[in-house]
Each structure stands twice: as structure tokens, then as C-alpha cells.
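protien #1 (seq + structre)
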Amino acid sequence: MNPKPTVSKPRGRRPSSGDVDVRDRMLDIATGLFAERGIAATTVAQIADAAGVTSAMVHYYFTNREQLLDAIVEERLMQVIAFVWRPADARADDDPFALVDELVARFFDVTERMPWLPPLWLREIVNEGGQLRERMLERIPIEHIRQFADEIRHAQHAGVVNPGIEPLYLFNSIIALVMLPLATSKLWHSARGLPPLDRRALQRHIGALLGFGLRPPPPAPTPSPAARRARTARSAP
């Protein structure tokens, strides 16, 4: 899920495996600090100190902050998108409930492997003025989202999914249900009397909410003849 990125040559020489490892480590550390503190509040010196290198070394691999942000988007966030939208398991082809369960499971998988993702998403992508917002708006996987919505819509037409669900909004609902609690888990932990957020319990909770909400509502009960006569009598002038 997280292959080594393809690295461009540093100026003047061929990169060694050590170069790739150092660059990759710096990118991981910068991403983590940006998620924890925010991009605007994180300096190159702080990244260098956390990585155990000099600021000059950071600038050697990432000429400026813009290049560093581009690398985070292309080599970290685009990996997330590719993982979430990889082809679905065969069992989910004709089962909207399995499709939604698998999508939720992928979000929990990727956020466990990349714990910086939810806070970075909230700080720098969702938040107005976030420094990754414009970069990610250009990369929203619109076709994947539309295809997902089409599959849900098809299931609605077949009577399998609740017709009150808006297919295009369902993916946003899944993101919000998974990412927002994880992004705010530290705030949750600091609240007096509340237990630490339990990832397994959260995933089970989300599965129950979505599974119940996706089911078509039960048909309205047919009134008995006596009830129909009583209703007619009440409505008579």
C-alpha cells in the first residue's frame, strides 16, 4: 500500500538508496508535524531537528516549502486515494452493503497505517485556508465517486437500498463518520469522564449506522377493514 516513491535525481549526482531513505524519512516526519501542528506553524528547522539533520539537508531534498507540499500530496495523499479506490472485492460487485463495508474498512486500514491522515485532512484540506486544500481539490477522484454513486443508485432502483439515501452524498457521509472522530480523538481524550476513542468500537458503530440507514424502510402496515371504516366515519361531514 505504501511503496517507496519514485525519487528525482538530486542535482549533480545519482541518488543512492541512502538518499531515498533519508528523503523518505524527512517526508514522513514533515507530514506528521504538519498534521500535529499545522503547516503554517511548522518550520524547516523543526523538521530538520526531528529528522536529525540540518536545515540545509532539508532544502537539499526539498528546495522550498511548495516543493515539500507537492511531495506530500503526490507521494502520500495520492497513495491514500489509490488505496481507497482500488478495485472492489468480487463479493461487493452486486452487493451495495458489502461495497460500503469494504470502503469503510479501507478507511480504517489506511488511517491505522497513516495516523497522520485524519488530522492533516481536517487541518489542511477540509479547513478553509488549509494549505493543501487547492492541491487536493484538483485531485478529487470524481469519476470514482460518481461510479460509487451509480452503483448505489442502481441498487435503489432494484429496491435493495433506501430510496431516501442521496447516492452522491453517501461517500461524504462515510468520510465524515470515519475521519472526523479520528481527527478529533485527542480532544475526545481530554474531555473529562470520556473514555479513549476505541477504533474497533467506532468501526462497528459506523457499520451499524450505515447498515441500518441503507436498508429500505419497512412497508406501511395495511389498515384493517375496521380501521378503514373508522377513518371513513371520522372524515365524513
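ok now protien #2
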Amino acid sequence: MDFRQLETFVTIAKLKSFSRAADFLFLTQPTISNHIQNLEKELGTILINRSNKQITLTKAGEILFTHAMDILNKKEQTLFSLEQFKGKIEGTLEIASSSIPEQYILPILLNSFHKFYPDVRFNVLHSDSEQVVTSILNGEIDFGIVGAQNDIKHLNYLEIMEDTMLVITPYSDRYKSMDEITIEDLLQENIIMREEGSGTRKIFEQVLNTHNKTINDLNIMAYIESTESIKQCVRKGLGISILSKLAVIDEVKHNLLKSMKIKDVDIQRSFYFVFHKYRSLSPLAEAFKNFVLENKDLFQDNNL
């Protein structure tokens, strides 16, 4: 096996296409096919099913994929260490993140990380928390930042910071004198809800369950993926919502939105750096993980 063959195999497995892998690696399609044929010949087994329109891995291919990811990441770690020894670290860091970390945590992190590693570039991928987890399990990405923790034994979740979720309303006469709202009162309100798979929605559903309620008991006016769109809809009076404290600091400060707690309910959650337990991180991902964990104080100044 050589690294080029393994890289070709991993790229095909991720992109599920020989032609897309060829474009991604700047190789011709015959070269891509030749890499796979030589790899299969050397290993004495078929790695990729070619009998249907969609590219899938055989059982042997699935086994090789896990090890190939580790081998390529170890290779990158070696090169990274050598470059670090020579005083230069560069490359592109691919980061998958759910909405709230993407909008309100990553900008702080990327700017701070860039000061230490000015030759590193960033590629930020937007996904909800469940999509980030799925992409890690499928080997499509090394790590992600999410706002909910799933009970999946193959994943490591390292806490970055804590967050509070609040009820967000228009800053109007009806709401501006209120400091809290009851679950029963929420049932009478028009609600704007995040999409399924969102960490914010998942945690709010857990709160409802503890009060023997479900999302079906709410008067849902809209399901919206974008936090910024939700805030604008709340300001226009379409309904109220449940959002991260991080997401509404500026609007609350300038009386554009009103925030309040649910009576007798303290909705706390954490944001996590999540990665696969049994797969080596790429060197840049490892450096970024360590940087995040060593600089949690970057997020302490977020009080409303």
C-alpha cells in the first residue's frame, strides 16, 4: 500500500463517486481506478461495490476505511510535527458545527487560533448537531462542535463551555415587565421552533417531557433553521421562541428583544468538542482541540 492509493480510497469512500474523487484529488479518472485496482490486488479482496449506481464499501472496505483514516492522519501528524519543529504550521482546518457554536463561538476561536497559526486556513461546514455526529461516525470529518450530547459509545465529548437557554419575546408592553413565564403560559403562545436535529430543540423537548408535555402540545407557528431568522420573526411579532443566551446578547442589551426564564426551570446546556474515540485526529484537528480546551476563558464574558 502507498499513501496515494489510501488517499484515493478514502476520498472515494467519502464522496461516493470516482469522478468527484478524481476532481477533488486533481487526478484523471483512469488514475483513480488504477489506484483502487492496485490496492485491491495487493490486499487480495474487493473494497468497493461497483455493481450499482451508488458507490458503497464492501465489509473489507469498511475495515480498511477505519484503518486508512488512522494511517493518513498519522502521516499528517508526522509531517505536522516536522513542520512545527521547523517553525511553520500550515494547512486547511475543516470544522463542522451546529448553528449556535458556528455563529457565536467559532468566530472567537478562529480569530484567536489564527493569531498563533497564521498560515492555517479554515473551512467551516454548517450542520445541526445530529448531522455533525453522523458525519464523524461516517468518517467524513474529524471532529465537530455541537450543542447536545448523544449517548454514542464511539464518540468523545469534551465540554467547551456552558450556556443558558431563554424564552425570547418581542420587546413590547406585553412582555417587557416580565422576568419569567410558566410552562402553562407557553402553551398559550405562538411558538417559533428550531428544526428537528437541533440541539436547542432537543433540550427544550426534554424540558417539556419533564412536565408531561410534548412539542405537539405547543402552538407551533414555524420551524426555522436560522437563528437570525427566528430573532427577526420574534421581533416582528410572529411568535416567541427558545434560544441560546449567546444568540441574543446584543438584541437584549439594546432592547430589541426581551429574554426571560421559564418559571422553576433552569435550562442549562453545554457545548462540546466531539470526535471519534477510536480514530486518530488529523494533526491540525488535534492542535485545534488542544487550543480550544486550553482557552475556555475566551467564552466567560457572555453575561446578559
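Residues 87-160+270-299 form a domain with the D-Maltodextrin-Binding Protein; domain 2 fold (CATH 3.40.190.10).
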